[in-house]
């Protein structure tokens, strides 16, 4: 495949016949820290999971109900296959320049007894950072399709645990104690903290055909976790998504993991040269802003030209033109192949191209379906657009899953990147297969849903939602004191300007959508310089410290240089940043952008200070974050 090179692949397979009677088959992670043990009988396939010698999941049954009966409650095991796999691959957009995909795998081949006699495979993979399983139902005589009714898996955790969960465009659920929690189901992802301080993140990989599962609290008050799937009927062969369990000693380990992308297929786009991550200026939140020269921003080409000029001069790669540019977005007659009065889309595209700036166009689900998705995307491509922001997809969850994949594939056909908003399907590592899927608003992005979020949300979202993949958080507010006067800002925005810069480092995404007016960035030009110096795409991403809901520190490499971002909740906090990631025997100039002594996320949001030092590997930098604040480091090798 052009541009995508598999550097190393090693596959070792073996088959154990049932006659060999391996009493207790098991698989270990490549480093031996994680173990999966299995017990097999006619009426059960039981799994036990250990991490560094500690039992995390006690002996627990797997199960899937098809055509009214559980295939793992009365079955005959035909054979067990083992496989060891190792490769290194290069992502188009990712947390590192290359990713190691190394796992050990067991596949149980069986056939259910009784009237159904369904052949099935249960595939389990064990990585250093977690494990996953899925069900495969192959083609077989006498059956064209099957009905998946439910999943009867019941994973018994060794002890009670604390958890946090995804909560749409609201602050995350948690921290809660599982035994004391009230709801019967929770959406993925769910992050758990076990009693031995091991963290387990429960999610799903390769959500491409069926509705995402929910995490079920079983009755009886025990510590078990169930998997709730929506009923579906489909033609054979069938592969469910991967049920994934990411494991680490710190919450940041779950975010740093590449398990989800490794469980997806390799890139299917041959020429990926047009897929370019970056930052975008955004018209939506700036409507009504009046600059000192008397200009008032609105939904018009004059405003878009002004954005383009600013982007071209300040290392920003894109302009996002949001909703209503082709008419009221929810009206049936708003045609996304024609711009409304006041907008000349052809002139805008030509001007942006002359300045080296890409344009991303909003598309509502109503217009896409009314006027033909492919017709609309072809028109965007013919105009010269770089990408699409797709909003408010409607339909059942399963239909949204399948339509999401259709949108992504068609966008790839017309060389368009895509960013999904407004209740999107969860990221599930599928950006490996289709890297034009650059990000999703899988969070409460700031000032969206007609309300603002508070500092504790960003330091929870970055551990819970971001474990699933790239998120669009719409970070980079500079004008806190007057932003409420704008048309598309509905509540006062809490936070600090230093924290807004840090968010552009801490939040992992393929596209930073920056919401403020160009003039507001230039008013604080010395602080904005940190953003100006950021690369369009970092070379690495790693959470180096943090506690869910309290604070987070992330480091990003940019060539020979580094950026570090730190954020806190409503509490002020002193942090000691150890520069262990720097190169040996090299000195670095570090510029520190941080809150001022008087900064506060409600009372004094726009004050900040900047200082400089010379440091080397192993040095420490002390930061004091204001309440709701943050700090950024830019380290340049001397």
Automatic annotation (TrEMBL):
InterPro entries: Aldolase_TIM, GH, GH-type_carb-bd, GH97_C, GH97_catalytic, GH97_N, Glycosyl_hydrolase_97
Ranges for domain Glycosyl-hydrolase 97 catalytic: 290-441
SUPFAM superfamilies (alphabetical): (Trans)glycosidases
Keywords: Calcium, Hydrolase
Residues of the signal peptide: none
Glycosyl-hydrolase 97 C-terminal oligomerisation domain mapped to chain residues: 538-635
Superkingdom: Bacteria
Positions of the Glycosyl-hydrolase 97 N-terminal domain: 28-266
Gene Ontology molecular function: any one: hydrolase activity
Required cofactor names: Ca(2+)
The protein's assembly and partners: Monomer.
Name recorded for this polypeptide: Glycoside hydrolase family 97 protein
Organism annotation: Flavivirga algicola
């Amino acid at each position: 495949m052009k541009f995508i090179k598999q550097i190393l692949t090693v596959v070792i397979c073996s088959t154990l016949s049932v006659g060999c009677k391996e009493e207790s088959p098991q698989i270990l992670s490549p480093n031996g820290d994680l173990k999966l043990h299995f017990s097999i009988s006619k009426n059960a396939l039981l799994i036990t999971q250990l991490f560094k010698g500690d039992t995390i999941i006690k002996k627990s049954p797997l199960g899937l109900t098809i055509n009214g009966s559980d295939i793992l409650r009365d079955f005959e095991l035909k054979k067990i296959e083992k496989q060891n796999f190792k490769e290194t691959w290069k992502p188009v957009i990712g947390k590192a320049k290359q990713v190691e995909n190394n796992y050990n795998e067991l596949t149980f081949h069986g056939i259910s007894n009784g009237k159904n006699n369904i052949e099935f495979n249960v595939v389990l993979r064990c990585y250093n950072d977690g494990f996953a399983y899925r069900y495969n139902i192959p083609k077989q005589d006498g059956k064209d399709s099957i009905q998946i009714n439910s999943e009867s898996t019941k994973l018994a955790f060794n002890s009670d645990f604390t958890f946090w969960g995804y909560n749409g465009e609201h602050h995350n659920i948690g921290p809660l104690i599982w035994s004391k929690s009230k709801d019967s189901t929770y959406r993925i992802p769910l992050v758990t903290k076990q009693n031995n301080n091991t963290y387990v993140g429960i999610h799903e990989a390769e959500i491409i055909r069926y509705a995402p599962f929910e995490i079920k609290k079983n009755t009886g008050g025990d510590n078990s976790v169930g998997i709730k799937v929506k009923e579906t009927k489909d033609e054979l062969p069938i592969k469910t998504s991967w049920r994934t369990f990411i494991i680490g000693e710190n919450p940041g380990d779950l975010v740093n993991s590449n398990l989800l992308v490794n469980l997806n297929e390799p890139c299917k786009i041959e020429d990926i040269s047009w897929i370019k991550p970056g930052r975008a200026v955004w018209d939506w939140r700036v409507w009504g802003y009046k600059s000192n020269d008397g200009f008032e921003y609105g939904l018009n080409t004059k405003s878009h030209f002004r954005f383009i000029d600013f982007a071209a001069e300040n290392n920003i790669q894109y302009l996002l033109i949001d909703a209503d540019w082709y008419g009221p977005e929810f009206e049936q007659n708003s045609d996304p192949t024609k711009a409304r009065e006041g907008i000349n889309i052809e002139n805008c595209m030509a001007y942006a191209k002359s300045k080296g700036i890409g344009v991303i166009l909003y598309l509502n689900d109503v217009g896409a379906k009314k006027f033909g998705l492919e017709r609309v995307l072809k028109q965007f491509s013919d105009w010269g657009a770089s990408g699409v922001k797709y909003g408010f997809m409607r339909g059942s969850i399963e239909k949204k899953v399948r339509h999401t994949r259709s949108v992504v594939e068609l966008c790839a056909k017309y060389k368009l990147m895509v960013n999904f908003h407004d209740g999107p399907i969860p990221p599930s590592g599928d950006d490996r297969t289709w890297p034009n899927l650059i990000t999703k608003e899988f969070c409460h992005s700031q000032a969206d849903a007609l309300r603002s979020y508070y500092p504790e949300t960003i330091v929870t979202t970055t551990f819970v939602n971001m474990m699933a993949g790239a998120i669009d958080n719409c970070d980079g507010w500079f004008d806190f004191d007057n932003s409420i006067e704008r048309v598309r800002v509905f509540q006062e925005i809490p936070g600090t300007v230093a924290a807004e810069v840090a968010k552009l480092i801490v939040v992992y995404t393929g596209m930073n959508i920056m919401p403020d007016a160009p003039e507001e960035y230039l008013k604080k030009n010395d602080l904005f310089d940190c953003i100006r110096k950021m690369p369009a795409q970092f070379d690495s991403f790693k959470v180096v410290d943090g506690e869910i809901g309290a604070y987070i520190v992330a480091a990003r490499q940019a060539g020979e240089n580094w950026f570090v971002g730190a954020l806190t909740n409503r509490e002020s906090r002193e942090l000691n940043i150890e520069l262990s990631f720097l190169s040996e025997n090299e000195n670095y100039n570090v510029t520190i952008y941080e809150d001022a002594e008087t900064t506060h996320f409600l009372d004094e949001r726009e004050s900040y200070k900047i200082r400089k030092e010379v440091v080397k590997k192993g040095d420490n930098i002390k930061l004091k974050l204001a309440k709701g604040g943050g700090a950024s480091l830019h380290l340049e090798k001397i």
